[in-house]
Design goal:
With about 300 residues, this protein is mainly alpha-helical. It contains 13 helices and 7 strands. The chain has helices at about 1-15, 15-40, 45-55, 70-75, 75-90, 90-95, 100-120, 155-160, 195-210, 225-230, 230-235, 245-250, 260-265; strands at about 55-60, 65-70, 145, 150, 215-220, 220-225, 270-275.
């Protein structure tokens, strides 16, 4: 080994001075290229998904609701497939090196993109995502998603990777993951990104709670989406000091159009909370929906 190193050193010393400079420059360039390649693979690009969302998601009521042009999206299914391939190429070891916000943005986008792919596989022959299940297995339990080195289901992503690890402690994900249903919080018209995730989740939460068809005060009872019943534990775990569902909702009193006194009563548990029915119809565009008006900036 020592002889081999000595031989290499002798070869470098024996090179003409100009040649040695070119060799050193080549080594530096190669090292820079390697570093750039590693950096480029560090976090996956969501550009393809972002473009698809801008083209096929229609925004209603100031962003409180959206619908999806699945018929148009079917024509771009190959582009969606390329994005899904990009997600599938990410290894668990790579994923674990990212900041938590980038990890969570990746998982939210993966859930939403694979949900669209699931719908497109049966469109237009379905009225609800629940049509894709059976008596013995819901569509959310189908294992068809190659992600982070394993075959996974939508439930695996939401309840295992996002909620199950306790890594993120983020109840607002319930307003970002989309189940392709009218009752679900709106599918965002832009991809989630690690660097803007907090603001995007906050916007999604406020917009959903401002939707009076799904969250409203009626008399002395606050009637809200059943999402708050299904995942009550997530909203009562102390996020921003909220130890109960009422305290979580009180954080968004303005979005719920509550006055200061009502917010105080809600925080104190003095306002009854009831849950509305969920609309499982497909969030497809309906006749009369406005077309997508180009691209919208963040």
């Amino acid at each position: 080994m020592e002889r081999a190193r000595k031989g290499k050193n002798d070869m470098a010393r024996n090179l003409p001075r100009g040649s040695r400079g070119r060799v050193l420059l080549l080594i530096v360039v190669l090292l820079l290229c390697l570093l750039l390649a590693v950096g480029a693979r560090g976090e996956v690009s969501h550009q393809l998904w972002d473009e698809l969302l801008q083209h096929h998601v229609r925004v209603h009521d100031g962003g409180r609701a959206t619908s999806v042009d699945y018929r148009g999206w079917a024509r771009d299914r190959a582009q969606l497939g390329r994005y899904l391939d990009t997600l599938a190429a990410v290894s668990r070891s790579e994923f674990d090196t990212w900041p938590p916000a980038s990890q969570l943005a990746f998982l939210i986008n993966a859930y939403n993109a694979w949900t669209v792919e699931l719908i497109l596989g049966a469109y237009p022959g379905l009225q609800s995502i629940k049509d894709l299940g059976s008596l013995f297995r819901s569509p959310w339990k189908k294992t068809f998603i190659p992600l982070l080195g394993e075959r996974r289901s939508l439930d695996d992503i939401e309840h295992g990777l996002i909620r199950g690890t306790k890594r993120y402690d983020e109840p607002r994900i319930h307003f970002a993951v989309n189940c392709a249903s009218i009752g679900c919080p709106a599918l965002a018209g832009r991809a989630y990104q690690g660097e803007t995730l907090h603001r995007q989740l906050e916007d999604a939460t406020r917009l959903f709670l401002a939707d009076r068809s799904r969250n409203r005060l009626e008399g002395s009872t606050l009637k809200v989406s059943p999402i708050f019943s299904w995942y009550r534990e997530d909203f009562s775990r102390g996020w921003r000091g909220a130890a109960s569902l009422g305290q979580f909702l009180a954080l968004y009193g303005e979005s719920l159009a509550l006055g200061d006194e009502e917010v105080a009563r809600l925080r104190a548990g003095e306002i009854a909370i009831d849950f509305l029915d969920y609309d499982w119809r497909l969030n497809d565009v309906r006749e009369g929906d406005a077309p997508v008006q180009g691209r919208r900036e963040r």
